[in-house]
Amino acid sequence: xxxxxGFSSPHEVPAVPGTEGWERMYxxxxxxxxxxxxxxxxxxxxxWYYDGLHYPEPMYPFDLIWDEAWYMALxxxxxxxxxxxxSMGIDHRIxxxxxxxxxxxxxxxGVIEQRVADFMKRAGYYYxxxxxxxxxxKDKVTALIKTVEGMEIKDLxxxxxxxxxxxxxxxxSGFELVRKYNELIxxxxxxxxxxxxxxxxxxxxxxxxxxxxxxxxxxxxxxxxSKMVGGVDVILFKPDENLxxxxxxxxxxxxxxxxxxxxxxxDALNALGGSxxxxxxxxxxxxxxxxxxxxxxxxxxxxxxxxxxDRMEIPFGNIKNYIDMLEKGESIDRPxxxxxxxxDKLVKExxxxxTNEDDKATFQQLLGVAQTCFPYVEDHCFYIEHWFHxxxxxxxxxxxxxxxxxxxxxxxxxIWYLNRFELQQALYDLVTSWATGVKPRGPSYWQAEIDWxxxxxEKFRQFSPxxxxxxxxxxxxxxxxxxxxxxxxxxxxxxxDASGVSPEDMTELKGFPASSGAIEGIARVIRSPEQLNELxxxxxxxxxxxxxxxxxxxNKIGAAITDVGGIMSHAAIVCREYGLPxxxxxxxxxxxxxxxxxxxxxxxxxxxxxxx
Amino acid sequence: MGxxxxxxxxxxxxxxxxxxxxxxxxxxxxxxxxxxxPVPPGFALTLKAYETFLQGSGSKETILRILEKHKQELLIxxxxxEEISSYIINDVILNKEMPGELKEDIxxxxxxxxxxxxxxxxPVAVRSSGPVSMPGQFDTFLNVCGYxxxxxxxxxxxxxxxxxxxxxxxxxxxxxxxSSPIGVAVLKMVNARCSGVMFTLDPVNGDxxxxxxxxxxxxxxxxxxxxxxxxxxxxxxxxxxxxxRTICNKVVELVRGPQGDVIARDVPxxxxxxxxxxxxxxxxxxxxxxHIEKHYGVAQDIEWAIDxxxxxxxxxxxxxxxxxxxxxxxTKAPVAPKGSATxxxxxxxxxxxxx
Lengths: 612, 355
Fold this sequence. Notes:
The structure holds two protein chains of two kinds. Chain A is an alpha+beta fold. Chain A has 22 helices and 13 strands. Chain B has two domains: 186 residues, Dna Ligase, domain 1 (2-Layer Sandwich); 138 residues, ATP-grasp fold, B domain (D-amino Acid Aminotransferase, Chain A, domain 1, 2-Layer Sandwich), CATH 3.30.470. Classes of the chains: A alpha+beta, B alpha+beta. Chains A and B meet through helix 3, helix 7, helix 14, helix 15 and strand 5 of A and strand 9, helix 11 and strand 14 of B.
């Protein structure tokens, strides 16, 4: 770019009327500041983009925990652990309830050079021992999750059990509860330490392969590359595969009518209990659940992204759908053999296209390492975002119930309006009140604050966060920024171009062509997973981001469009798998497009046309 | 008679080692026929036929004399080529009678071609075929109907080896000035619904994973001479996905006029912004392109047409193919020096990705 163009300064965006003072809901270091002049200058010089990929909704104070977790974890793996040559971490801020992030680069060539040696040694060790280290990872993460599953969060007794005295324990349930809360928070942060143990390196391998391919095959699209790299047996599809197997088993055992005839899962389970075959199916149904029903109905990043365990009617409904399809003679199997054959053919023929032997060797090296890394890239989110989070949110709800019991909250779900530090204070307030017998300050203090915060979060929903703030850099060296969020020249240009046009005047949006096909249809803008049931058959799903676990709606929709996301966003991967046209990373689709708008989506060109 | 001593040969008698017999285009066509590629039927006039004509008609001697006389002048004054060239072509070559043996040979082959095509005076294309690649230097004539017109046009192709551009080229490179034997391909004229070019790489950036097709309504000349902005289709050579599709406003097409000549005609409005190829045809063309590239072992620049008289897939006709002249001849430097995966990634991360 000959001339640097910029977005609005992060300090110039006004507050949403009626939300003034919102900053206190979040830790102080999340606020853009004009009081610290050095920091103000850093913020003004940085390139901030809205992380709608993970945060399509305003931040609930407690849910910020995962952002805090990766604020540190992702950054440290770049900066301090693997010594990614030209990249430190990713900085975080909140503006009007929405999360903005900025990659922090290293510009001094001498420093970069120094970091390379450490990178070679450290990253080299992981790349070479990947499978072995990943097997260890699965063990330690599974052990961590099981520890959290086993934690008991109990309300405080009127009088401590005699055992405290006769076993000489010397500590109270109040202290135990405080300790458990701290442990729970630490386990959460620990899970996210592991989340990034491999991810930076996995993305780095993919990004460098993609960059190489752009040079030798300028016309190759990202979908082709991801087919060459992507795994065939992806864990994320396993929960859904279990449901397909259950549908087949239902037909085999002849219990399909009982299942289809039951409006609710409990009715079905009762009815099935009356026959031998029915009991066999119920047994299989129970066996298929753990841990797969920790599949989130969203991305798992928000407390209201319920798992299948929390919403058993969802997997039950899917089983019924699959039974219907089987009865109509349709195949419900994933075309695994075909996916594998396509992958092999692409790898073979693309390799043959390279006539220069050095290029061929480089391609094979990079492809090999990317393929090694990819199972982790595709599978880690089941372990952390789905399984761990699913367990974690409900442990916090158990704590929430104790607060309700003690008059702090009217409802368990109010706990999300306190951030993790505030919750620690509130809990201490609760246990000291329990200990002293004096009424706690919390109920009067928090109820008014929670009511105000509920109102603020609702007002935040009316705010459309600009896609970016600050100044665009000339190069991005931070692997996640490129791969996950799809921050590229074209997306940044598009955001800049659009910043001068009012939404009503826009007729076309550009994004990444994520999945082939073109279709016209009616838009349905979805802002939270609860709205998913509003989708009508054939409508085009428009969302800030979509989640692979929105499986049921993929059977219904005609196409998907997202604001945020690159070639490897969860949305892109799953749309390809389901053969739906998809355009991702449009920056503005959910702002510009209104429900009911007629659209043309071209998944080959990456364009969305608004038909007036 | 052996191939070396013939004036005329069927295309299928020629193979890839025969450029010195009938020029590159003819032997490519022969090779394509042998590889079972859909090229139009036809025959070739050999380099020997060119010599037979120049010698037998007495032109050679005259040309030699003229050039001897003006050689020094030509060396210092390039502008002089226009005048000399025009004189040689019009006053020396074009008014000469073709030697009898040559006329008989041509009559024999043309009759048989007309029989094959089931049409007397079958319209043919008369194309130059140089022994080395000099794209666009020599003339090509289309829609030539009947024996006499064929003879005239063959002579015109030969005469084009004395156009100013070709002579200046030869002089610059120290080649023989007074003779530049070229072959001539005589091919059944395709009744083209549309036509165009195909590259088995992306001509813009050399990407070997693409197949690049351009086409417009009617005969191919409008494309080559840039009168029309063609439709453009880009495919992935491995998956055959059509990755790019640009439909242009094609207002003019070249068609065969009542006298068999080529005339420009307005394209009916409803066809102007319609793709000139169906997806089925695009895919079949690409398949043929990939096959041709594999056959020659190097990227190709292919001219094709869709014949109105035939049905899919026989309507796809390959008019000519040659090695792509820019990217495929470059020795490509490696994009990055070799290294272990970790080294490659480290280097990549040092540089960053430009946005």
